[in-house]
Amino acid sequence: MPHTLEEKKRVLARVRRVRGQIDALERALDEGAECGPILQQIAAVRGAVNGLMAGVLESHLREEFSHVAEATESSQKSIDEVVSLVRSYLR
């Protein structure tokens, strides 16, 4: 769960964008669109959901682990590395 009001607004905005992409995908399927554009929309939805997951996970990691080592430069670097790994995995 987002830890600040600003984070919550960002997450909700991303969720709404994903919903819009899903709605567009549903319309395309209803209208009998070609396979290529459908696959492209599915890939876009997957990317959007992965981005949403990465953002929420990053927020969670920073919130949970930033206080452990009192937010030293070393701990921040470690958090940044984990976030980078997760983001690259979700691509």
Rg on CA atoms, Å: 17 Å
What is the number of independent domains?
Answer: 1
Number of distinct beta strands: 0
H/E series: HHH
Helix content: over 70%
**In the CATH hierarchy, what is the superfamily?**
Metal-sensitive repressor, helix protomer
> What structural class is derived from the secondary structure elements?
mainly alpha
Count up the helices.
3
CATH class: Mainly Alpha
InterPro entries: Metal_Tscrpt_repr, Metal_Tscrpt_repr_sf
Family: Belongs to the FrmR/RcnR family.
GO molecular function, one term: metal ion binding
GO biological process, one term: negative regulation of DNA-templated transcription
Short descriptors:
mainly alpha; 91 residues; 81% helix; Methane Monooxygenase Hydroxylase, Chain G, domain 1
Topology:
Layout: H1 5-30, H2 35-65, H3 73-89
Helix pairs in contact: 1-2, 2-3
Family: Belongs to the FrmR/RcnR family.
Protein name: Formaldehyde-responsive transcriptional repressor FrmR
GO molecular function: DNA binding; metal ion binding
Question: How would you characterize this protein structure?
Answer:
- The protein has 91 residues and is mostly helical.
- The protein has a single domain, classed as Methane Monooxygenase Hydroxylase, Chain G, domain 1, CATH 1.20.58.1000.
- It has three helices and no strands.
- The chain starts with a helix and ends with a helix.
- One of its GO terms (biological process) is negative regulation of DNA-templated transcription.
- Pfam families: Trns_repr_metal.
- GO terms for molecular function: DNA binding; metal ion binding.
